[in-house]
């Protein structure tokens, strides 16, 4: 399939969601940008394998997820700063409460198992249906529903959230935890 103007526009429209997903996976803005760039390069190089009429964002998210996993396997052999002590010396602490709350949320999100975090981000933050998220993750719809439910419960417990009604409609926690689909 040739790269048409409408296909190019649809790819470009997916970039913000791809970047958000990449950040949620990698926890690093620079790595996320690299992942998105590599995803777009691979998608354009393999545009002939895209099936017209299928879900382009799901195809792009699958490429990104596979790239992340490949990169993760490579990085496993590297020495890590697992407790984050060295990384803390390289950055300044946020001065506003919103930054602190977001860091707490980010830390709680990082404590979720990878499969639950992926499912929650795809369904809760990126707006994919359970069916599309299942295709991206290569598992059954029921598995995605279960992962999202377990992730929401664990994240709520980690953040000591009794109900999402206490948060405003634009709150990050509510956006990701969601109200169930």
Automatic annotation (TrEMBL):
InterPro entries: RNA_pol_sigma-70-like (IPR039425), RNA_pol_sigma-70_dom (IPR014284), RNA_pol_sigma70_ECF_CS (IPR000838), RNA_pol_sigma70_r2 (IPR007627), RNA_pol_sigma70_r4_t2 (IPR013249), RNA_pol_sigma_r2 (IPR013325), RNA_pol_sigma_r3/r4-like (IPR013324), WH-like_DNA-bd_sf (IPR036388). GO terms for biological process: DNA-templated transcription initiation. Residues 15-77 form the RNA polymerase sigma-70 region domain. Residues 103-155 form the RNA polymerase sigma factor 70 region 4 type domain. Pfam families: Sigma70_r2 (PF04542), Sigma70_r4_2 (PF08281). Keywords: DNA-binding, Sigma factor, Transcription, Transcription regulation. The keyword Nucleus does not apply. SUPFAM superfamilies: Sigma2 domain of RNA polymerase sigma factors (SSF88946), Sigma3 and sigma4 domains of RNA polymerase sigma factors (SSF88659). GO terms for molecular function: DNA binding; sigma factor activity. This is RNA polymerase sigma factor. The lineage of its organism: Bacteria, Pseudomonadati, Pseudomonadota, Alphaproteobacteria, Hyphomicrobiales.
């Amino acid at each position: 399939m040739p790269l048409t103007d409408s296909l190019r526009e649809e790819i470009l429209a997916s970039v913000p969601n791809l970047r958000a997903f990449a950040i949620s996976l990698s926890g690093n803005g620079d790595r996320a940008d690299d992942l998105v760039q590599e995803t777009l390069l691979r998608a354009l190089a393999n545009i002939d394998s895209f099936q017209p009429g299928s879900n382009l964002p799901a195809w792009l998210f699958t490429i990104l997820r596979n790239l992340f996993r490949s990169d993760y396997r490579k990085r496993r052999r590297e020495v890590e700063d697992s407790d984050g002590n060295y990384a803390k010396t390289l950055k300044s602490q946020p001065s506003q409460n919103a930054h602190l709350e977001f860091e707490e949320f980010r830390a709680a999100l990082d404590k979720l198992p990878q499969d639950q975090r992926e499912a929650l981000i795809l369904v809760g933050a990126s707006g994919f249906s359970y069916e599309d998220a299942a295709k991206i993750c290569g598992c059954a719809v029921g598995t995605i529903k279960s992962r999202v439910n377990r992730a929401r419960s664990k994240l709520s417990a980690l953040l000591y959230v009794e109900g999402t009604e206490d948060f405003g409609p634009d709150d990050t926690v509510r956006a990701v935890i969601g109200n169930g689909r």
